[in-house]
Amino acid sequence: MISLSAGSRRPALFFVFACLTPALGWAEEPTKLDPYVVTAPRGDAPLTVTADPKAPAQPLPAHDGADVLKSIPGFSVVRKGGTDGDPVFRGMAGSRVVVALDGQCVLGGCGNRMDPPTAYAFPGAYDRVTILKGPQTVLHGAGNSAAVVLFENDPLRYTTPTASLQSSLVAGSAGRFDALLDARTGRAEGYARVAGTSTRGEDYEDGDGREVHSAYERWSTNAAVAWTPGEHTTIELSGARSDGEAAYADRAMDGVKFDRENLGLKVKREALSQLVRSIEVQVGYNYVDHVMDNYSLRDFAATAMMPARAVSNPDRRTLGGRALVQLAPAETTAFALGVDLQENRHSVRSTSNETTMPYAAKARTRDAEFSQAGAFGELTQKIGDEHRVIGGFRLDRWRATDERSVVALGMAGAATNPTAGQRRSTELPSGFLRYERDLYVVPGTVYLGLGRSERFPDYWELIKNESAASVSAFRAPTEKTVQLDTGLGLRTAKWSLNASLFANRIDDFLLVQSGYVKPAGMGTRAATITRAVDAETWGGELSANFRLTEHWRVDVTGAYTRGRNRTDGRPLAQIPPLEGRLALAYTQASWSAGGLLRAVARQDRVAIGQGTIVGQDIGATPGFAVASLNASWRFRAWARLSVGVDNLFDKTYAEHISRSGAMVAGYEQTTRVNEPGRTLWTRLDVSF
Ligand SMILES: [Cu+2]
What we know:
The chain is an all-beta fold. 2% of the residues lie in helices and 54% in strands. The strands form four sheets. It has a 22-stranded antiparallel beta barrel. A six-stranded mixed β-sheet has the order 1-2-7-8-5-6, with no helix packed on it.
């Protein structure tokens, strides 16, 4: 049993803040707490899905950015432990899915991918999560070939002194305990907002009662103050601080520090003239300091790779900014024009023997630096009442510098870096064109779009891996995706339906291949390499809900992706299998009860040893089905209690794309990191 000790005192500060705010008088209308447990998301517009990260959801998500995406059709999560999984959309992982926290890009530091951007997202601190599918927008950075994920807060604006407070507590199996507090106060001249979250879980058990090395503890604080000198002007200064520690069941180390510091400044001016609808300028600073070791959260066991207590401490500083002008040249025309830039530098220090050479006494050594500057324009033209054409183009200039003098080769020692000190830069053009048509017989929209995106290789593809011919992959090409997106959304009072289909060709898809045999001295060694192949994927998502009677409601969702590696003539690796969900809910004015059935097909389209920066295929997986039950009760206008049993029948299963289980002293090794067995949880939400 592992005990965690990271500080969780900070949320206490916010309870103090919260106690002071009632003096200002409560908001007139209490936030409506619908007595409903969310099992499927909403599709609001073509290619757009939104989720409420503050709503109770089943299965109970870990309080991180990846798990909150899990119930959205098309998303899957690569499990490594109890938290910090990697989100995958339509089989596309890593930097193919751009994640922005309040408009800012946060890149993790861990070379072994313990901290995807979503590890720094604490969903309860945001009002909304928006997913934009495909290369069908140019407004949110470059290279987002698969999707853009935006964690956002609603803009605040008050006319009279107001305060509001939202809080939730979660308790569940395996020592799960979450506390969230979100307090806001404001008047005509400005506003202040703070959100604090704290979450912890102990090792969970899989369906067979095997303990999984997965305990974690995380906390976050977000705060913003704004000055609103006029009806149309907002100047907001924001900051965030978070940290945590997490055990990993798929590797020989655990994360003992995930420290993020953030500062942001946003200036927005609206309704400047008939032509200029708004001007917005945003800058942000993010610093991520991560520590992992092989002894703090597990019993130390000497291995050939790590005979002593070892620590690695990477960090990354990211600076970014964006300026955006929204123009309305005609009543039927909207034009967004902007520039964005981002610069990040990564460094690492480590020790193979903490006892004799503590890592903190060592200097940090920079290993890579990246920068990007882009200009973009996106035009929406209405044609008559029911047709729209939307098009966008962006051009980015990327630069990367390889600052490693040596390349670590694991057991084989180290080699001189053949690309040491090299710098490369490239121009990346991206764009899309989409036609949308509104329907009237049944209210809805159909769309057809073609997009191209070009993605610069990320830190993991360039710096962490070797190439086939060299110990450095620093010369890996850019990845080019051309994708066709089509679909429809229909909505009536009784039912709604959203369907999206996509097909693409990806030139120079950056495949990460493990176990690649290279000569070493008299023998051979296995390397992990980045390799460009030509690939294609196609598939889609479906979600539908029907109101059967006044009280009964059914949600059905499905997702499928098929991928092919054309260069190797094999299936593309790390593609999640077909899956479907069926949810049934009975709702009354003040309470609801429901059930969820999730069924996942077998996956035998695999390419063992191939995959992405997150993980590689380890073999075929059988299908499985998991049933869950939930209920929710609004017992006061301002309070709601929800309860759930996830994995009711205590099924033992693992997601196809999850990582293989590692040998951890005191735990049974499994083929993959298994999902939790039967999980009971209860959640209390209050809102004033
Ligand atoms: Cu790490």
